[in-house]
Specification:
Blueprint lengths: L2 E7 L4 H9 L8 E8 L3 E8 L5 H5 L10 E7 L6 E5 L2 E11 L2 H9 L16 H9 L5 H11 L2 E9 L2 E5 L9 E4 L3 E5 L2 H5 L4 E5 L5 E5 L2 E6 L7 E2 L1 H6 L5 E2 L2 E2 H19 L7 E4 L4 H12 L7 E3 L13 H11 E3 L8 E6 L6 H12 L4 E6 L23 H14 L3 H4 L5 H14 L3 E4 L2 H8 L6 E2 L1 H4 L3
Parallel strand pairs: 14-23, 17-20, 20-21, 21-22
Antiparallel strand pairs: 1-4, 1-10, 2-3, 2-4, 5-6, 6-7, 7-8, 8-12, 9-10, 9-11, 12-13, 15-16, 18-19
Helix pairs in contact: 4-5, 8-9, 8-15, 12-14
Keywords: Glutamine amidotransferase, Glycosyltransferase, Iron, Iron-sulfur, Magnesium, Metal-binding, Purine biosynthesis, Transferase
Enzyme class: transferase
Cofactor: [4Fe-4S] cluster; Mg(2+)
């Protein structure tokens, strides 16, 4: 995914940018960067690899070198950024979050003639943020350039630009990610996560609409290009990616997760399918609030049969190799034997994507003495890799547990009936659930319905992107 934070104040803003960016560390694991502007000394910028060391520790030593009243920072799950760009539009720093599916085609279309070049990364690919900047620079002003870039990109691009006049913030054209403005006594900030600026003394001031571009200064903000009518904000922000304290489109993440669990339990009780269990538990960490809601509604006691040991490995998707990630996940799971041995347990996870680590978790629970393990997913079966953001991106949809299971059950014919397989009330849907139970060792499995998930989010469902479940834009 990736996250961003920017601030512009009447006094030095370096610490605000540092802490605000650090509060987005849950959104990415590869690169972290900061760019600060001072009217006398110009731009200062630094980028660090954060794959094995947190953002905070990598940038702690840089703070003494930074100074200025405006700056932006990013946590990137893809390319090194922010970048410094010099063009006919001036000198500016830029950071982006999103996906460019047609990067090669854009390079070929616009930049294949003599006189154009890009710095290739070790993979041979072009830095996505550099490509966005190149598209922006094709126009005569930054606003027209941002519009041009977003219109040409197949995927999404949320953009922050820092120049001598302040910060330009542009939400992607369908609003798949949030962009929020906070205001304080000494200036303004722009952020992905709202809680990040609450801790820094800013209050909620404005939330950009889809496609909207605003200029943020220490004195406030001004819309330079209006919002569009259509929005498709990512539902996974509430189920998984978003931090509990954050609000998107007026809906709090933690509150949504409680309600989501309650709706799952409500519907399961209504169908008469709630198993007899000793405890309801959440797969740490993001599964826990869904499980609390489930326990509250079902009347089953909530417990934590195992906890994660996070001081040395705070994020389960590090390091980079799958084998090492699996080993780290295993090392982090610390059982509470008194809550596992001889117990029937129902676990709620935020989602089931590939199922690799979930298999390890179930094996760990049985090895620790569990009598039964029932699993519930707080969202529907993931059927399609995301083509708009970095969540559930795959080389092939067959890496996804649900799609792989369908292929194993029915071959290519099954791929013509994905919608039916996603519906647990159909024979195909029940067949898929049984097959996954056998494969991963669950005593039962259930997925939240799409209707239930949308009910829990609580905003206009036509404004929510559900592509990874339905394949429909």
């Amino acid at each position: 995914m990736g996250g961003f934070f920017g601030a512009i104040t009447k006094q030095d803003c370096v610490l605000d940018v540092f802490f605000g960016t650090d509060y987005h560390s849950h959104l990415g694991t590869k690169r972290g960067g900061m760019a600060v502007y001072d009217r006398k000394d110009g731009f200062q910028r630094q980028i660090h690899n954060i794959e094995n060391t947190p953002f905070r520790t990598k940038f702690d030593k840089d703070l003494a070198e930074f100074h200025g009243c405006s700056g932006i920072g990013c946590i990137s799950d893809t390319d090194p950024q922010p970048l410094l760009v010099r063009s006919h539009l001036g000198l500016y720093a830029i950071t982006t979050v999103g996906i460019i599916n047609n990067a090669d085609a854009l390079v070929e279309r616009y930049f294949s003639d003599h006189g154009h070049q890009f710095m290739a990364m070790s993979s041979g690919k072009v830095n996505a943020t550099e490509l966005v900047a190149a598209l922006i620079n094709q126009k005569d002003d930054l606003i027209s350039g941002i519009r041009h870039a977003q219109d040409e990109i197949d995927g999404s691009a949320t953009i922050l630009i820092l120049d001598a006049d302040g910060i330009l913030a542009a939400r992607d054209k369908l609003g798949r990610l949030p962009v929020l403005i906070g205001q304080g006594e000494n200036g303004c900030c722009v952020s992905f996560e709202s809680f990040a600026y609450h801790k820094l003394g800013y209050h909620d001031a404005y939330e950009l609409g889809p496609r909207e571009i605003v200029r943020v200064t220490a004195g406030g903000w001004k819309t330079l290009s209006p919002a569009g009518e259509q929005m498709k904000i990512c539902a996974f922000l509430w189920t998984y990616y978003g931090y509990p304290n954050s609000n998107y489109e007026g809906m709090n993440v933690e509150v949504m997760r409680y309600r989501n669990g309650e709706i799952m339990a409500r519907d399961e009780v209504h169908r008469g399918q709630l198993p007899k269990v000793d405890y309801v538990a959440g797969v740490p960490d993001s599964g826990v609030p869904h499980a609390i809601g489930f326990a509250n509604r079902s009347g089953k006691p909530f417990a934590r049969p195992f906890v994660k040991y996070t001081p040395t490995w705070p994020r389960s998707f590090m390091p980079t190799s799958q084998e090492a990630r699996n080993q780290v996940a295993k090392m982090k799971q610390i059982p509470v034997p008194e809550l596992i041995e001889g117990k029937k347990l129902l676990f709620v996870d935020d989602s089931i994507v590939r199922g690799t680590q979930l298999r390890e978790t179930v094996e760990f629970l049985y090895e620790s003495g569990a009598e039964e393990v029932h699993m519930r997913s707080a969202c529907p079966p993931v059927m399609y890799g995301c083509k708009y953001l970095n969540f559930s991106r795959s080389n092939s949809d067959m890496e996804l547990l649900a799609r792989r299971t369908i292929q194993e059950l029915e071959g290519d014919e099954g791929q013509q009936h994905i919608e039916e397989y996603a519906d647990a009330s159909t024979e195909r849907g029940r067949c898929m659930l049984r097959a996954i139970c056998e494969k991963l060792g669950f005593d039962s499995l259930g997925y939240q319905s799409l209707d239930g998930l949308l009910e829990a989010i609580g905003i206009d469902r036509d404004k929510i992107c559900t592509y990874c479940w339905t394949g429909k834009e």
